[in-house]
Amino acid sequence: MRFLRPAAMVVEGMPGRIMILQNLAKAIREQNYYAVFLEFVIVIAGVVIGFQINAWNEGRMRAASADAARANLVANLRRDIAEFEERDAYYQGLSEHADTVLAVMEAPDRLAEIGEWRFLESSFRLGQTWPFSQSRQVYRELEGKGDLDLIGGPDVRLALAGYYDSWAPEFGVTVVRAEPYRERVRQRMPMALQVYIGETCRGGEIDNWSKLAADEDRTVNIPRCPAPDEAALIAEVAGDLARDRHLLELARGAVAQMNTTRSVLALITHDAERVIAQIEGAE
């Protein structure tokens, strides 16, 4: 039938639309109202189909954006977990040094038994910290663009806010704050010994802490270094520090802080894993 021809013209751009209008005008002049009705149906169907195609394309693009956003955020969270595990392994490695410091300072007569240099090296290391925090870049970008809804529903967004915002006060307040102890040890220890430890005793910089952290039954020990050729100086300084009662109080505080830090690391690691599970469950 002649008046069915415009159906093919709906998707042919401007020429197709011009032909539809020409056919419509001709049908009206000829009072062919059936053809007029059919032309209108074709036009309306074309518009509806066009909107549906646009909506489908937009939906597909949004789904792709959501997949990418979730993948980036999960990757970011997994990097956080790896960082936390490395820090925990490091602080576990400091535990042996903490035990040495407290053993001597709580019973100074054990200094000769435990070793003067061993005590001094541990005293210095106990004041070392390795700060950490979450990587918030991906989350803040999504938040700034108003795209957090791409990640999941209200429950997922609430979990994300809890992870990225609620933990912030913990950092710098209850975590890795050994400043009073650190300052006193460094004030009382001669620079010659501090420089020696800094330049020679590099065992605290193990290349792959994450590999150590991956072993659930790990026992991490930061390797010790040999004593410098300063026997008289070592004996004098070790004796002074071992009898410093104020330093003992600060050492206890530093050890308690280290244990708190490890507890926070365990909790925030669990929280990150829980958030990942919620994000992946929302896909």
Beta-strand residue fraction: under 5%
Tell me the total number of β-strands.
0
Radius of gyration: 35 Å
The total count of helices amounts to 11
Q: Which class of secondary structure composition applies to the elements?
A: mainly alpha
Taken from the alpha-carbon principal axes, the silhouette is: rod-shaped
Q: Roughly what percent helix? A: over 70%
> What is the rounded distance between the termini?
50 Å
Number of domains: 2
Strand/helix succession: HHHHHHHHHHH
Biggest beta sheet summary: none
**Poorly predicted segments:** 1-12, 204-215
Average pLDDT confidence is: 79
Produce the secondary structure layout.
Layout: H1 13-29, H2 33-106, H3 111-114, H4 116-126, H5 137-145, H6 154-166, H7 179-188, H8 191-200, H9 209-213, H10 231-242, H11 245-281
Keywords: Membrane, Transmembrane, Transmembrane helix
In words, what does this structure look like?
- With about 280 residues, this protein is an all-alpha fold.
- It folds into 2 domains: about 1-55; about 70-280, no CATH class.
- It has helices at about 15-30, 35-105, 110-115, 115-125, 135-145, 155-165, 180-190, 190-200, 210-215, 230-240, 245-280.
- The longest helix has about 70 residues, at about 35-105.
- The relative contact order is 0.14.
- The model is unreliable at about 1-10 and about 205-215 (pLDDT under 50).
Nutshell version of this structure?
With 283 residues, the protein is mostly helical. It is built from 11 helices and no strands. Helices cover 71% and strands 0% of the residues.
